[in-house]
TrEMBL record:
The active site is at K78 (proton acceptor). This is Shikimate dehydrogenase (NADP(+)). It comes from Thalassospira alkalitolerans. It comes from the Bacteria. Keywords: Amino-acid biosynthesis, Aromatic amino acid biosynthesis, NADP, Oxidoreductase. The keyword NADP applies. NADP(+) binds at D90, G141, A142, G143, G144, A145, N165, R166, T167, R168, K169, R170, I231, G254. Involved in the biosynthesis of the chorismate, which leads to the biosynthesis of aromatic amino acids. Catalyzes the reversible NADPH linked reduction of 3-dehydroshikimate (DHSA) to yield shikimate (SA). InterPro entries: Aminoacid_DH-like_N_sf (IPR046346), NAD(P)-bd_dom_sf (IPR036291), Shikimate_DH (IPR011342), Shikimate_DH-bd_N (IPR013708), Shikimate_DH_fam (IPR022893), Shikm_DH/Glu-tRNA_Rdtase (IPR006151). Residues 19-101 form the Shikimate dehydrogenase substrate binding N-terminal domain. Residues 137-205 form the Quinate/shikimate 5-dehydrogenase/glutamyl-tRNA reductase domain. Pathway: Metabolic intermediate biosynthesis; chorismate biosynthesis; chorismate from D-erythrose 4-phosphate and phosphoenolpyruvate: step 4/7. GO terms for cellular component: cytosol.
Length: 288
């Protein structure tokens, strides 16, 4: 018998968390959170929880009753989690979706959305010298990811945000709902003039992702000082990022958003605000 104790040994007081989704097998969260649990030597576990949407409510309540500390919630259950929460953070309410649930000691279910936090923290870490709110931003896309990015940029003090989306009405509806004079809707495809004075260009669409069509964009009008980022992280360097880099613009890939959005949940459930490092990036990207 070996005297070495494997790190995954659990005690009677282990803290438990996981990720609920359907499907959930593609999720990188168990690998990511498992890395931090091992790194910080925490007596806890984080598991994939495949839950059919029809069972979502019962499963959430059961996890609370089983003594879980919390869960991440992924597609298609991010919106379904909203009405199940006893308390929502401001950002979850505004975005209209929950990705991080914490079960409080008194049994209350607390919902948060950390996607916008992850977006901003990624830019801060990867482009510490970029003043991405110095001038206007252009955000491509008007889906769920766009909402999180828009609110985060407004909170960061962005002076103007131009949304461009294939389906114009979706962008118009989103702008009307947010109802902030700093939000403008511009044409898709983008006119070069829309890029002429910006500090930040963000792709929140699925274009450029493995298996999806390419994002066709003319960057001719883009200032060299503008930061370009993509929330797509497969591939890590999308065509948009490669094109921007070639012109001399600073770029930030989308992997860090995924890693940073996981920090608040880990902190609440396991007690440590974990670090996002180059080693973690390699670990999450490497095959299981
Ligand atoms: P998410 O929650 O990840 O943002 P979503 O709500 O499905 O996902 O939004 C996907 C975004 O990618 C939308 O802005 C979508 O544009 P539409 O609103 O016009 O659908 C955009 N998108 C997806 N496929 C696209 C394509 N082939 N061309 C242009 N935009 C596309």
């Amino acid at each position: 018998m070996t005297s070495r104790i494997p790190y995954q040994t659990l005690s009677g007081t282990s803290r438990l968390a996981g990720v609920m989704g359907w499907p959930v097998s593609h999720s990188k969260s168990p690998r990511l959170q498992g890395y931090w649990l091992a790194k910080y030597g925490i007596d806890g576990s984080y598991m994939p929880l495949p839950v059919e949407p029809k069972n979502f409510q019962a499963a959430l309540i059961s996890l609370r009753n089983l003594g879980f500390s919390g869960v991440n919630v992924t597609i298609p259950q991010k919106e379904m989690a909203m009405p199940e929460c006893d308390e929502l953070s401001d950002r979850a309410r505004r975005i209209g979706a929950v990705n991080t649930v914490t079960f409080a000691k008194d049994g209350r279910i607390l919902g948060d959305n950390t996607d916008g936090f992850g977006f901003i923290e990624n830019l801060r870490q990867e482009a510490p010298n970029a003043d991405f709110c110095a001038g206007p931003a252009v955000v491509l896309g008007a889906g769920g990811a766009s909402r999180a990015v828009l609110f985060a940029l407004l909170d960061e003090g962005s002076p103007e945000i131009r949304i461009a989306n294939r389906t114009r009405k979706r962008a118009d509806d989103l702008a009307a709902e947010i109802n902030d004079p700093r939000i403008k809707v511009v044409d898709w495809p983008l006119e070069p003039a829309a890029l002429a004075d910006i500090s930040l260009l963000v792709n929140t669409t699925s274009l450029g992702m493995v298996g999806q069509p390419k994002l066709e964009i003319n960057l001719d009008g883009l200032p060299q000082t503008a930061l370009v980022t993509d929330i797509v992280y497969a591939p890590l360097i999308t065509d948009l990022l490669a094109q921007a880099q070639k012109r001399g613009n600073s770029i930030v890939d989308g992997l860090g958003m995924l890693l940073h959005q996981a920090r608040p949940g880990f902190h609440r459930w396991f007690g440590i605000d974990p670090e996002v490092t180059a080693e973690l990036r390699d670990f999450v990207l490497s095959p299981d």
